[in-house]
Amino acid sequence: MNVALLAHPAEEVAPRLLGSVLSCKTSEGTVSIAITETEAYSGTADPASHAYRGRTPRNAVMFGRAGHLYVYRSHGLHWCANVVTGTDGAASAVLVRAGRVIEGEDLARSRRGERVETSRLARGPGNFCRALGITAEHNGADLLACAPVVLSEGESVPAALIKVGPRVGVSRAHDWLHRFYLAGDPTVSAYRLSPRARPSAGA
């Protein structure tokens, strides 16, 4: 993966990441997952973005160079992985929502549970990180270097297979069409409207 492909607004990069592969190497082994669902978050211009109110110690990675990993805790329960995009100093990131395990399935299953269906091993952002083994220690990792977490190009996805829709589970700007996913893919998470969602103007 080339940084030039990521140095664009999140809503442009998000569909391009479909089919790309995120790999994480730990002491237990390596798991690789082909991305099937993403969501774009446009920084200070986006009410649903962590960077909407400016830079903080928590979201500082989002304001950095494209190609780094921004990891945060969701609802105090799950880790979520984001690929930083755009230009240095302007926060922008793509949340990886789901994917298909293509390497290390046994390890991913040991982390997710023996009874979990194969298509659900990395379905949803929290499950995606759990299957990969991503935690807070990976926050800020350079995805384009020989780091424990690496983003690489995968199979090309035909434009006809890419669907667009509103974002899942956010209360602000939920109706922005910034969610991208592969049509008919069983690994894609189900759409869920936040009970706190309210109409908003946006892209």
Automatic annotation (TrEMBL):
Q: Which residues form a coiled coil?
A: none
Keywords, A to Z? DNA damage, DNA repair, Hydrolase
User: GO biological process annotations for this chain's record?
Assistant: base-excision repair
Enumerate the GO terms in the molecular function aspect.
alkylbase DNA N-glycosylase activity; DNA binding
Record-given protein name: Putative 3-methyladenine DNA glycosylase
- Family, per the entry? Belongs to the DNA glycosylase MPG family.
EC no. given is: 3.2.2.-
Q: What class of enzyme is it?
A: hydrolase
